[in-house]
Design goal:
Length: 134
C-alpha cells in the first residue's frame, strides 16, 4: 500500500516520524465527498529512510499490502462469515435462537481482531520510505 506522507521529525535511532493523511478506499478525494469520516485525519508512523530527508518534506511511504489486507479480512470478514454460517446452521431452531446464536458468533469473531490490535500495539506495522513526492 503506497501513500503520501509528510516528514515530521528525525528520530535519534535514524528512523523518521511521518504524518500520513488517511484516505478511504474510494478515490481518496475526501474534500469533495466527506462521506467516510476520514477527512482531515492523519496517523503518525515511524519509518526507515533509505536516503536523507528533512522535516516538512513530502515522501512516498509503503507498508506491506498483505498485512493490511489480512487485517481487513480479520476485522470485517471473519465476524460476518461466522454470523452467516451460524445463522444458516441454526435455521431449524427458529428466529430467536438463530438471532441469539448469530450475535454470539459475531462477537466471537471479533476476538481475533481485538487480539490483533493488541499485537499491533506491541509491534507496530513496518513502513518504508520509497521516494520523494514530486
Amino acid at each position: 500500500m503506497r501513500q503520501r506522507a509528510t516528514v515530521g521529525s528525525l528520530l535519534p535511532d535514524g528512523s523518521v516520524s511521518l504524518l500520513v493523511q488517511r484516505v478511504s478506499a474510494c478515490t481518496g478525494d475526501c474534500g469533495h465527498c466527506g462521506g467516510c469520516g476520514a477527512v482531515g485525519q492523519s496517523v503518525q508512523v515511524t519509518a526507515r529512510a533509505p536516503f536523507p530527508v528533512e522535516p516538512g518534506e513530502r515522501v512516498w511511504v509503503e507498508s506491506r499490502s498483505g498485512a493490511v489486507l489480512g487485517a481487513a479480512a480479520l476485522v470485517y470478514l471473519l465476524p460476518l462469515g461466522l454470523l452467516l454460517a451460524v445463522c444458516l446452521a441454526a435455521q431449524s431452531l427458529g428466529g430467536v435462537w438463530m438471532a441469539v446464536l448469530g450475535a454470539a458468533a459475531f462477537t466471537v469473531g471479533l476476538i481475533p481482531a481485538l487480539l490483533w490490535n493488541r499485537h499491533l500495539r506491541r509491534r507496530p506495522m513496518e513502513y518504508r520510505i520509497t521516494g520523494r513526492v514530486d
